[in-house]
Amino acid sequence: MAWTLVIIAGALEIIWASGLKYASSTLEWIGIVALIAISFTLLIQAYKRIQVAIAYTVFVGIGTIGTYAIGVYLGEPYSLAQILFLIILLTGIVGMKLSTTEEGEPN
């Protein structure tokens, strides 16, 4: 369950981080602040079952890769070197997830 919270929090991070560039009205900024609050609330709940460093690493990695992908989709420039390093980052994130269990689960 805690990993589900981290994944949802990371997905929300993609939305709010991408929205920072495009928000122009007060209502849009209120939405972004709300998404930030929800995202971090979910992450804090996950910390109760997963080591902080591991959960935060996966959360930030999801946000980084997802925000980069959204940027490329919206027309921002990219390079093969950046994609290579994102693959390396993704490998590390998957490795962190696979090598960590929630508290109470066997290793």
Automatic annotation (TrEMBL):
InterPro entries, sorted: EmrE-like, Small_drug/metabolite_transptr, Small_multidrug_res
Top-level taxon of origin: Bacteria
Mode of membrane association: Multi-pass membrane protein
Disulfide bond found in the keyword field: no
Protein's cellular compartments: Cell membrane
Annotated keywords: Cell membrane, Membrane, Transmembrane, Transmembrane helix, Transport
Transmembrane segments: 27-47, 54-74, 80-98
Keyword Transport: yes
Protein family per UniProt: Belongs to the drug/metabolite transporter (DMT) superfamily. Small multidrug resistance (SMR) (TC 2.A.7.1) family.
Protein name per Swiss-Prot or TrEMBL: Multidrug efflux SMR transporter
